[in-house]
Amino acid sequence: MMIKFKTPQKKGDVEKKKKNVVRRDVERQRRRDMAKLYQRLRLLIPSKYLMRSISDHIEEIVDYVKDLKKDIEDLGRKRESLKEKKNISPSSSSSMKLISDDDQDRIIVKSCNDEVEISVKGGLSLSKVLKVLMTEGLIVNSCVSSTVDQRLLHIIQSKVNTRGDIDLAMLRSKLMSLS
Hints:
Strand order of the largest sheet: 1-2-4-3
Mean pLDDT: 77
Shape: elongated
Order of helices and strands: HHHEEHEEH
Strand content: 15-25%
Radius of gyration: 26 Å
Largest sheet: 4 strands, antiparallel
């Protein structure tokens, strides 16, 4: 009968295994983080730009960003042509800009993980805002109203629908059209 003895592991082998375990854990955490970031990115993109595979999604997202840049450039050109048609002087242009900036800050829509936060300043009807959110498939989690600088402020937190295909810009434009 032959007796086999277990050979003791070398110190280098133990350290190598520890490094592999650490490397594996770091890679697993990196993949989790990438999945979370990818999910957040998907929530910002309209469903028509989403395909089946991740690489297709990324390509479509790049196309979407290019489309947005083109739209911004087109709107800038339209704005300049409207200024020329109206013969807006530089002094009145700056006062017009202040008015439009204030108007732009009146309704703010932003995404936080799987939630959408809507801030509404001014006398916009809360019931109309809530109706738009419901038609868009958002579930209202909370709504806080207060008065700031003698103006009513509503902050509404909503959960994104199960599809996750909410278009924040479109939602904001629908809310802006309520006033």
